What does this fold into?
Amino acid sequence: MNENEKLAKYIHKEIQKLGWGSRGELFQELTPNALEFWIGQFQTRKCVGHSEWSDRWQRNIWVSDYKEDE
It folds into this structure.
């Protein structure tokens, strides 16, 4: 699955969470700001993680907590 397909699937999932009853309600919720926020969240999804001390490298290293949803 390419990145555009993953983005479309993610936005579709977010739209379903809105709990809209009619198209009018949906379009009130689908603002450019909401779409921009979702796209930003999607693009930064792989930045989830934490740092840990590495005895081997004698410094903090980044450990990713990211799991791809399929």
